[in-house]
Design a protein that fits this description.
The protein is α+β, with helices and mostly antiparallel strands. The chain has a domain at 32-67. The chain contains two helices and four strands. A hairpin with a 4-residue loop joins β1 (33-37) and β2 (42-46). It starts with 7 loop residues before the first helix and ends in a 5-residue tail after the last strand.
Length: 83
């Protein structure tokens, strides 16, 4: 079985989710998507991952973001890797 190593981006974004967003979002927006920009702590919601990711991209086109489905244990890193 492969070992999963979370990136610093994932660790920071998941900490923001756990500490500040999880309780409210899982109660009110379960099954939707959240994309978190960990440097600012800003987050973007959407009914689809594309909706949330585009909102994050419009606000922070040069930063990497982290997306997840609210209430589910799956996530993705999205963003510009040309730094």
């Amino acid at each position: 079985m492969a070992t999963v190593v979370k990136s610093e981006l994932a660790q920071r974004a998941e900490a923001i989710y756990e500490e500040r967003l999880k309780a409210n979002l899982e109660a009110e927006r379960r099954d939707e998507f959240v994309v978190i920009e960990p440097d600012s702590g800003d987050y973007f919601l959407g009914r689809t991952l594309s909706d949330a990711a585009w909102a994050a991209y419009r606000a922070y086109p040069d930063r990497q973001t982290y997306g997840m489905r609210i209430g589910w244990p799956v996530a993705v890193e999205v963003g510009n890797s040309l730094k």
